[in-house]
Write a structure and sequence with these properties.
By secondary structure, the chain is an alpha/beta fold. It contains nine helices and 16 strands. Helix 1 packs parallel to helix 9 and helix 2 runs antiparallel to helix 3.
Length: 393
Amino acid sequence: MLEPGPARVDAPCAHYPACGGCRFQDLAYEAQVAAKEEQVADALRRIGGVEEPPLEPIVPAVEQFHYRNKLEYSFTATPSGPALGFHKAGRWDEVLDVEKCWLTTDLGNAVRDAVRDWARAEKLEPYDQAEHTGYLRHLVLREGRNTGQLLVQLVTAAGERFDRDELVEVLRRFPEARSIHWSVNESPAEVTNLPTTLLWGEDAIEEELCGLRFRVRPNAFLQTNTAMAERLYELAGEYAALTGNETVYDLYCGIGTIGLTLASRALTVWGVDVSEESVACALENADLNGITNAAFYAGEVGASLEELRDRAGAPDVAVVDPPRAGLSGKALRRLARLEAPKIVYVSCNPTTLAANVKELERDWGYRLERARPVDMFPHTPHVETVALLSRAS
């Protein structure tokens, strides 16, 4: 660096820029959100073919740091023994020993350090991703930010080489700990979405969003920024503009968060997700909140839509919250054939949103009416967008 630009700030994290997590910590927050807003506008113009995108101002994050409710740490070997951290920027085979992460809370940092100290005391060996040797692989921490409940998942290689009671005792020193799980990963792939064995406590924790309670199991999907998830769902509700008479499809429904927050304003809500664990949570969450006009089914979205229409009738509003790849060709075509008057599209990837918007406008008679970016992930390049597409009747 020869001369700092006007938008450069000092990054507060001692691990920046070696850590591959928060790449934009040295960029002023106002510049970050302006860039993200322009990123969405550019994608809609360039990829979506929308000359003048109907873009509303980006919703900035409530908290710029300490906002994540879920973190996945990797174990690594150091001269002092096992440590926990994140992959170095651009490296799959090197993990950075993290002393303080600015994305989690004081609780999250303290629990990570307690597990590190336990691993050292037990003389357990971290897994070596290059050599495929060792034992300890990952630690996953999920916090109910509005409930104060903590879920812990330890991921190891094959075999039970630790004392369960010892680990549980260490974690129970934190009163927030409610659910402690263990998973075994025998594959080379670095994954944590695995079957779990409950070591202690409840099988799930609870979180509160938009006045509703949600049960969250280890592998269930939940937006990782709780405060901004509430803003995202409020925006989806605003765009849906329900009157109480609508049949709503909640596609890629996860644990039912969006559909259940809309249920009080709809006639019926029908949710579909490929994850059986998430759908089990969604069904529990409907019961937990006394919501009787919502039903959820496990299945591939594209493959399930015709059967769902036969069962539920055609949708008045379809809410979609697909993964980063967006709506696949089959899912998009089958959704479009339902001819829902409104599609509320919650996107985590502006480029796939824009490509889907282009196809829905060009081939299926939809028009992009509104779109608004939401900054769920400060200091990273990621941006969420809520879009409303309507179909001329």
